[in-house]
């Protein structure tokens, strides 16, 4: 009798897992409390995979041998607890997919910068001719790629804490931890310690010949490292301190060190600018050095990388005002880096679903740089309270169109209008991409 695999959640990762499970000869069932997108319905229908939407039928789920859970479903959901009590294995799509591939993995996580670092790392490896794929919290799911037979020698994976929470036997050959700042605390009982432990799952199961790349400037990482015995080779990166192996920035030059070998690149030459992008560049560059990619190829890749949509993306200049789309800034720390990189007065568009945000660390920068704050969200009370008396002008809006128009009227020639929400998008938008696309559309319609 074939093993029964039940998949909870029918998004990209869930459908990919379903296709892979079926290919492996399992008895497969997909269940989603929401409405399935037509594209995913068609795929499941064409593959002959049974599914249900707008409900979870217990008798069809609790007879599973393995449950593959969407990262969007919290571990605190009653059904997940009951499944585990029954001894049914509940895992993530990455954990499931990796069991059917001999690939090696570069795994990148962190509260901020992971998408840019993942895409930059992939760009360098791909340019160098490495047989590499891209998956995780970005693009096509790992399970789908393996199911379609497009298996690679290496994968660069962007991993969220939610994905890491469902990973147990999986091992990263190269683990990258960018930073740990408060985010998603609503999923971790509002305890920072729980969130830190989740991020550190990226190093679980690592061996002596694996590699761990991390930010030496991040206090949460260094404090946790002091408590742990990390088996992997360690490669720190820093904007302030010289390191014997890893990367650091000195006199506007980034130096990469691996054993006795040194390579450097001038910050001003990088295609992506800003303090946060120095960190992203250092992490991706260390990975490239570990692959022993030729220095000219690494340098050329760092200078040719185009950046990430919705991350400090220049949209247009209107009446002498620059409009910047940083919709991917879904937490306070990410917005700090955005404001820190601004060279002009800022009209700042922010707001959305608050995830337990503490806006304290933004107040100094806001006082220096922000001339007006445009709130766009269902509930803006916390933003209003935090920046009252700090930002001279604060207005509330109920749509992106209204927010962009307000920002336009509040700005002057030479100013920057910055969408950097510091919040999740789910009150008014489908996701941060939808929010960013709407922003760009509204700017173009001015």
Question: What structural keywords apply?
Answer:
446 residues, Protein-Tyrosine Phosphatase, Chain A, Rossmann fold, 17 helices, globular, nine-stranded mixed β-sheet, alpha/beta, six-stranded mixed β-sheet, UDP-N-acetylmuramoyl-L-alanine:D-glutamate ligase
Topology at a glance:
Layout: E1 4-8, H1 12-23, E2 27-32, H2 38-47, E3 50-53, H3 58-61, E4 66-69, H4 78-85, E5 89-91, H5 93-98, E6 104-109, H6 114-127, E7 132-136, H7 142-147, E8 154-158, H8 161-165, E9 174-177, H9 192-199, E10 211-215, H10 219-227, E11 233-238, E12 246-250, E13 253-258, E14 261-266, H11 275-290, H12 295-304, E15 313-318, E16 321-325, H13 332-340, E17 346-350, H14 363-369, E18 370-376, H15 381-387, E19 393-397, H16 400-410, E20 416-419, H17 432-444
Parallel strand pairs: 1-2, 1-4, 2-3, 4-5, 6-8, 6-9, 7-8, 9-10, 10-11, 11-12, 16-20, 17-18, 17-20, 18-19
Antiparallel strand pairs: 12-13, 13-14, 15-16
